[in-house]
Design goal:
The chain has 311 residues and is an alpha/beta fold. It has a domain of 192 residues: 3-Layer(aba) Sandwich (Rossmann fold). The chain is 36% helix and 22% strand. The protein contains 8 helices and 12 strands. The strands form 2 sheets. A 7-stranded mixed beta sheet has the order 3-2-1-4-7-8-9, with helices on both faces. Strands 6-5-10-12-11 form a 5-stranded antiparallel beta sheet. The chain is globular and about 90 Å long.
């Protein structure tokens, strides 16, 4: 087939005019994609750290506490490094153990932000919102009604016997996953002992786990070394953030019914004076919340209020 010279010339001129525009559009699209933020939230506890088995590691009076502040910080750093390897651009960390002043803030990268101390309306999940893409739980432990797991309890080993949502007992991991789920954010990783990892994976399919120790009893474990645990957390955090689309947010919707069972009678008796609270039995109160945000604020009140608080 013959093509006239003028037609070919016109075609080439038209292509020459269009191609630069296409190149610019492609470059802009690639640039926008490269700058797309990927926000990761890390909630960090202490009982699930490698080697942590007793109060000696978990509070200021323990002879190993200062060393375990370093180990907690290192495990959080491992999660940060793994998340960044998977593309995370912004990271918020919530120090969520004891006095919530455990993580060594000066060891964190300058662009990471840290939430410290109490009280806070969303508890261990303060700062989470719909702008985050994934949540990582570091150093977590199993729940109060679980007969296994190192230091198994839910929120307060001293005060609470059980925490139930919609009739089902929940550990802190599931409770906090429901707060994240309220905002449409999936929990993609949990680190701690083997019992803790299995507990969340049973409730939230697809969650990556990093079992840094195997529970033997309430105060005993077969543990990895801190360095080995941090390497595992780093790998699993990267995999979890890369594969975050595989995990659905854990949503409870609303209303949500909380049944809170105390170890003593008096807290239940006094809380039942509030018209929004029902006393289910001698040590259990019930509160029906519109959603997990309201429920978390109620738990923060119950756990933190004292009439003699100052200032």
């Amino acid at each position: 087939m013959m093509v006239r010279h003028g037609s070919v010339e016109s075609f080439l001129v038209a292509v020459a005019r269009v191609v630069p525009a296409l190149v610019v559009m492609l470059a802009l699209a690639m640039s926008a994609s490269a700058q797309q933020p990927l926000r990761v939230y890390i909630s960090a506890d202490m009982e699930g750290l490698a080697g942590a088995v007793s109060p000696e590691q978990l509070g200021p009076s323990g002879f190993e506490y200062q060393r375990y502040r370093e180990i907690m910080t290192a495990e959080v750093m491992a999660a940060i490094e793994g998340a960044r390897a998977a593309g995370a651009t912004e990271i918020l960390v919530s120090d969520s153990h004891g006095n919530a002043q455990n993580i060594l803030i000066d060891r964190l990268p300058d662009d990471v932000r840290l939430i410290r101390s109490w009280p806070r309306p969303l508890g261990m999940m303060q700062g989470i919102d719909e702008t985050f893409d994934a949540v990582l739980f570091v150093g977590y432990h199993s729940g109060a009604t679980n007969p296994a797991g190192v230091r198994a309890h839910t929120f307060s080993s001293a005060n609470y016997y059980a925490v139930r949502l919609n009739g089902e007992p929940v550990p802190e991991s599931v409770f906090n996953a429901a707060i994240a789920g309220h905002f449409g954010v999936p929990v993609v990783l949990i680190t701690g002992d083997d019992v803790t990892v299995a507990e969340l994976q049973a409730a939230v399919p697809g969650v990556e786990g990093a079992a840094v120790k195997e529970a033997i009893s309430y105060h005993s474990a077969d543990s990895m070394t801190p360095a080995a645990a941090q390497a595992l957390i780093r790998r699993q955090a990267e995999a979890a953030v890369r594969n975050r689309a595989r995990v659905s947010p854990y949503r409870l919707g609303g209303p949500v019914t909380l049944d809170l069972t105390f170890k003593n009678h008096r807290p239940a008796e006094l809380l039942a004076f509030l018209p929004i609270v029902d006393r289910v039995d001698a040590r259990t109160v019930r509160f029906v919340a519109r959603d997990m945000v309201e429920l978390a604020a109620f738990m923060a009140f119950v756990g933190g209020y004292e009439s003699g608080l100052t200032p």
